[in-house]
C-alpha cells in the first residue's frame, strides 16, 4: 500500500540533552533472521543484508525504547519470505530491483509514542528510480499502520501521526524498492523529542546497480574440470 507524501517533521539535535543507547537487538524476529535476505558477501550477517537494532533515548521527559528488524531482498525472494511465514500480500518489487524492508517489532517504552521511522538514502543515488515508501499490513496483534510517508531526497520516512506506537505495539512491514545494491545508512526512530542523535546503520540503496552474482572464471573452470573428471570416470567403468 502506497503512502501519501507529507512534510518531514523537525528532528532536533539532542546530543547534550538526551541519553542515548544503541545496540544489536537480542530478540530478532523472522525479518532479521530470514535466509531469503540478499547475500552479496558484504552484508553484516555472514554476507547477508539482514539485522536487528535496539534504540533508546530520552529528552525533556520524552522517552523511547524500541527494536527494529530489517532486511534487503533480491528479485523474487520477498515473496518467498512472505510464503515462509504465512504472511499475506505480494512482492511489490520488479525484476532487477532490491526491496528494502523494515519493521518495528517491539516498543518497550515510548512517551508520547513512536511517531516516525526514517531511513537515510544517499542523495546522489539515482533518486528517480527509487519507489515511494509503502507498507504491508500483517494483521498482527497491536499492529499500527503508518498514516503517511515521504521522500525528501535524503531519506525515506514513515509517519505515525495520530497512530503512534505505544508500549506493546508493533508495525507492519515498511518498505521501498530500488534498482541499486545495498550499502549502510542511518535508521532514525522518534518518540516526540526522544530519538538517538547517532543512529545505527541498516541497509539502504548505494550507487551500484543491482546485478545477479556471476561465478568467477576460475570457479567456472574448476566446475568444468570436475564435471569432465566425473564423466571420464563413468566412461572407464
3D structure, described in words:
The chain is mostly beta strands. It has helices at residues 30-33, 77-84, 217-236, and strands spanning 19-24, 39-43, 47-48, 50-59, 62-73, 98-111, 114-120, 134-136, 143-144, 148-151, 155-159, 170-171, 173-178, 180-191, 201-209. It has one domain (19-236). It is globular, with a radius of gyration of 20 Å. It is built from three helices and 15 strands. Helices cover 14% and strands 42% of the residues. This is PEP-CTERM protein-sorting domain-containing protein. Keywords: Signal. Residues 1-28 form the signal peptide.
Quick structural overview:
This is PEP-CTERM protein-sorting domain-containing protein. The chain is mainly beta.
What is the string of SSEs from the N terminus onward? EHEEEEHEEEEEEEEEEH
Total number of β-strand segments? 15
- Overall pLDDT: 80
Low-confidence stretches: 4-25, 214-235
**Count of DSSP helices?**
3
Shape, principal axes of CA atoms: globular
What percent of residues adopt helix (DSSP H or I)? 10-25%
The span between the termini is 61 Å
Structural class: mainly beta
Looking across the biggest beta sheet, what order are the strands in?
1-4-5-6-13-8
